[in-house]
Hints:
alpha+beta, seven-stranded antiparallel beta sheet, 16 helices
Amino acid sequence: MKKILLPLSLLLMVSYQILAQVSISETLLEHRINPIGIDIEKPRFSWKIESDKRNTMQTAYEVRVAKTEKDVSRGKNLVWASGKVNTDQSVYINYKGEDLKPNSRYYWQVRVWDNHNKTSKWSDVAYWHTGFFNTNAWTAKWISPGYTEDNSRPSPYFRKEFAASKTIKSATAFITSHGIYEARINGQRVGDAYLTPGWTSYNKRLQYQVYDVTSQIKTGANAIGVSLGNGWYRGKLAWEKGYDHFGTDISLIMQLHVQYTDGTEEVIITDDSWKSSTGPITSVEIYNGEKYDARKELTGWDKTGYDDSKWNGVKVQNFDKSNLIATYNEPIRKRETFEPQAIFRTPKNELVVDFGQNLVGWVQIKVKGKAGDEISIYHSEVLDKEGNFYTTNLRAADQENVYTLKGGDEESFEPHFTFQGFRYIKVEGFPGELKKENLTAVALYSDMEKTGTFSSSDPLINQLQHNIQWGQRGNFLDVPTDCPQRDERLGWTGDAQAFARTASYNFDVKNFFSKWLKDLAADQVNGSVPHVIPNVLGKNGHGSAGWADAATIIPWTMYLAYGDTAVLEDQFESMKSWVDYIGTKSNNNLWNTGFHFGDWLFYRPFDDNSGMAAVTDKYLIAQCFYTHSVDLVVKAAKVLGKSDDVSKYEKLAQQTRDAFKREYLTPNGRLVSSTQTAYVLALHFDMLPENLRKQAAERLVENVKRYNNHLTTGFLGTPYLCHVLSANGYNDVAYTLLMQKSYPSWLYPVTMGATTIWERWDGIKPDSTFQNPGMNSFNHYAYGAIGDWMYRNITGLDTETDVPGYKQIVIKPTTGGGLTQATASLKSNYGQITSGWDIASNVFKMHVVIPPNTTATVYIPTESENAVMENEQNITTANDIEVLGMEGKYLKVKVGSGDYKFQVATSSN
């Protein structure tokens, strides 16, 4: 029998080798799938590999590019053929072919070779469409309404008819506006993006969008219609200047290229031949909402044959076009929808609807009634203690949509140029009985791919993760806003830098932050960074420690998360100019001047007779962030090979540390502010001599215990608190803080029914009353930065910092907090990574998935390497796992790609 089995097993092994395959699972250009409107002349290719064999690495690739799908599939008439390139690089491969032409489509494929002597098939054909490489390509003119606007600034409507005289091959539209636009062709909406062109520092960087509208254009007569809203361009923003931050006009520029099958092209542009009018959107603002009178609808205005004889002409404007740039971040799109969970009357007899989730977007309503009936929809995040509709925390933002019926058949309405933050709505004026089927809530946010998941055995922790991700959804609406509901909704830098690493786990934010960072650089003034980006607070709102440091922290964080040196190249001058600016405000390398927010919203008990308010010296904080930013400039300079900058800023980093020690540290190691945030920042930013680090960690732990195992940190200390505790041997204390349910803690809002992260630790107090309504958002993601620790410490999923972007992965989980199970996954540039563990019957099991073309260092909690099994085999005998030995209470192993199941029998876990 044995003689038969041996040849059979060998035959199976040979068969497996023959059948083992490597393939391309996903292709991207500039980190997007089949993007349209790329104005980079040397774009970059990336791809992901799949393999059914462990330890698979790419050894070579070949890329080919052509102008037609047929040519690239055949390998004919190529504009670039890379040939076989021997490398394991599979991300950010530069195009090196013929010069690309504007407004042109290119098709590409890739194949790879692996270390198992396998060659993949050519990938499915992918494509990209180029934008304009210079502003000379814009022949269209800016146009504004030809009528005189009234004070309510109703939305303008523009239209033009044109004839396409030949058989159409393709049609591509280039559009942007001063304000927010919605375009339509022949009665159909153009694209599925909303609130376009998004929000940038418009006077310096105004994004245009590119749409393939081939299916919407027909031979013969065609009609274009575009409506506009005030948006961020000239609408009410913030509280200083108010309106018209970027201009007083509302304008459109559009260029439609129609290519015919005979090789000719016709270009339809905005010019003085267009017409303008007002319509049913009688008033619209981001904060206040939209008023829509269906009796004023312009039926057929976006179709041919419409009678526009009573419409006005347009004003041709001589606005600059040099600020027009292509769009690289994902647009805002409709995402999840929610049905009402309950419809009820409050104690005040208000008709209120609960959608069960605090979200950002709007409500679609279906209604049938008489002409002139008016329905008002108000939006709120919470109910008050008595169960009534609560809007005081919205401050001056009305968050009200008003719909006036035209009468007749059932009508439907949703806003066009505004958005709301809400869980509840109050409905007034609805004719008849309001039923659940009349309402749908629609979530709107930047169309980032969800990349991360985290779950555990604790339902409260799972709800916390839910709240973190929904806080990100609601506030990553083209810019990283602080909150989405009150009269603010600004791109606060401090919130963004605190949350950036967590954000990169939950969703793919590479393009999102790349775009926003370019606006940050554009808005810097002599190196100083404004509090909000785009800057609508004016020249005085800038330069605060921990806020302005977004200029250095976020580029480095994005580099770690995605491994792309381009973000450092793009932002390096911005990074340097920020730390150089601090130098001009410092005395002997000590930054002790200027306005600073400090550790925003730290723990401050109402009755502080015992002196328990956790006040941290703002200049101590500033010095820590100064040094940290200098360190990040050094790190970026090393990556970019800028040796002179490395030397210069390494010297400065030492000088700023020395200044910190002189000013804020006693000889015995006590900081002048003996708070959690002070010790956290000093330890995390390496501000202390090595011999004083242990006692500083001890002081931190003593402080936590003094507050009965509660945190007292604000926006700047919170992101690093648990990281510092874990790094200094106090993982148990970190877990205790995470699992704490009473105020102040991460789980306290969860116990109070939160579905997003709150701005304040006690936005709703234990007695169900509210914190200060002047600043009390219930969707404010900064404290959600704990998510980073949950991914990186509980499940241990991380990247090597010297080989970032998860090319070399680290898996080092830590147990505690009474958890019996935790699992996280991350869709990286190379594929999905999984790290999970569970404990049952004194057996610790660990599940790890590593994608092809990467390696991982895995730390398995154990007392002995002989106790570790992998797929029911002792790990020491596994020939595809490299055992590196014990490190503390972990067995350290090196693995390649594959699916691994480790098991340890233990009584200590």
